Amino acid sequence: MKKHYRPIAVIVLITGILLTGVWAYRHRQTLKPELIWKTTPVTNQTKIQKLNYQGLKVSTTSAVFNLKTQNAIDQRLTKLKKAKTYTLASPLLIANPYKTNTSGLYVYFKTSLPTKVTYRVRAKGYEDYSGTLYSKNGYQRIHENELIGAVAGVKNKITLTTTDKSGNQHSTTFEYIAPKLAKTDYNSYRLVYGPSSEKPSQGLFAMIGDKASKTRRSTYLIDNSGTIRAEFPIESYNSMRLNFRKHHMYYAISSGKIAVMNHVGQITAIINTKKQGYELHHDYIIQGNHLWALATSIKAKTKAKRVEDQIIKINIKTGKITKVIDLKQILPQLYRQATGLEKHSANRGLHDPVHLNTIQASKNSLVVSSRETSTIMKLGNVSGKVKIDYFISDKSVWQGVGNYSKYLLKQKGSFLNSAGQHTVMIEHSAKLKHGQYYLYMFNNNYAMMDSRPNFNWSAYTEMDRNNNTVKGNYSLYYKYLVDENNRTYKLIKEFRVPKSNYVASAQDYHGKIIIDSGLGGVFSEYDKNGKVIRSYYYRGSDRQTYRTIKYDFQNFF
């Protein structure tokens, strides 16, 4: 007997279609449109490429930071871009083509409609990382970016999603095994949760001046879970800080060079101060079309053994030094008395009577921090003949030193003055009167003055109203309210942080406070009340770093 399966199968198929149609009709008002059509996966045909560097010198970090090399790399990349049409389904992906970010990924493709691009990175054993690729006009058809966030040395699953102005989305997913980090063996920092219940701020920590290696240096970007999401190798010294101007990032790559990077990782300019007779140290800041940097005169270092007491002004467009401020000329009487030589830092055996470590610019003035004198100095008329506007320090520091005591602002209240402070930052507020502003800092709370070894520290050893003393095994976050109208300053906020005799940093950031205890082997994010939200402990034998600053990197990566 023949079995008639075909008519039965047709009936079952038709019934299924009808039932599906009824279900869809009943649910068409409750289903969210995006579940039906908004996100559309595309067929992925992607392979991560490596650029051909044949004939180019890229084997050393110094060779990479050569503009001829960077331009040659860019030309090869341009040829690849023109070789074919790249789409979301088949983008051009190249691992770290400019050799400036170890785990970075160059991304290039076009879309038929203007879109914005978001992405997600997943790696086993690490938290997900998400971001939005930089777009000059918000929505655009040509997408060329450096994607950061991949975890070094492991398999990363990366999803790119485009969204047009109507909300339509398309996505593609590919895998990327990022190279191992060049300067450290660790992908993360040890995360410890603090007593504060607040969430950490958005952004990435730039950990600057890591000394885990004696011969290698890098600046790392670290997320809130403690995972390293980018590594910028440098030649030597440290990057000091990251500054941004016109969609470019400025960072020091040695004690004589500042590199300028665009948003795809290409070095477009290098400011060389060493060739002009000056070494960089500690800090620099951008003001309009100029850059102010703390410096050492190579001539003064060689002939007079004098260091870290110069300020140079650099034209950003030309890279030329246009002005030099010499603290010896401003404070000649100090130099006559402070004749002791440095014993503790890398400047052992040299004359370091001011030891500048932070610079801030405000109109025609500069605010600098002098570690050696435990003094915050404001210098005025910096475009002309420079003058002293004020000093902030304990009066004992300047007692009997020329006539400099007349520049001291009056201290309001009884509190311990800062000792050996770092990262003194200006904070303006619309709530304050004209002539008023805040200065906050990492108060190292450490008594050292090699240039005047007989200085009497008794004003710092007595316990203040907050039970703080320079003898304590702690450093402090300090915030002053400065009133130039009445020539006063007062302490409005303080809390204790892990001890660091030298280096270290403080940053007020989006309602939180970032503290790096440079010699303490930890950086932390605190809430506004001084309670730890999260702490990140360094790994490795040498746990010293210079400073950690948080950035959101909007309008860049």
Automatic annotation (TrEMBL):
This is Arylsulfate sulfotransferase. Coiled coil: none annotated. Transmembrane segments: none annotated. GO terms for molecular function: aryl sulfotransferase activity. It comes from Lactobacillus corticis. PANTHER family: ASST-DOMAIN-CONTAINING PROTEIN, PQQ ENZYME REPEAT PROTEIN-RELATED. Residues 94-174 form the Arylsulfotransferase N-terminal domain. Gene3D superfamilies: Arylsulphate sulphotransferase monomer, N-terminal domain.
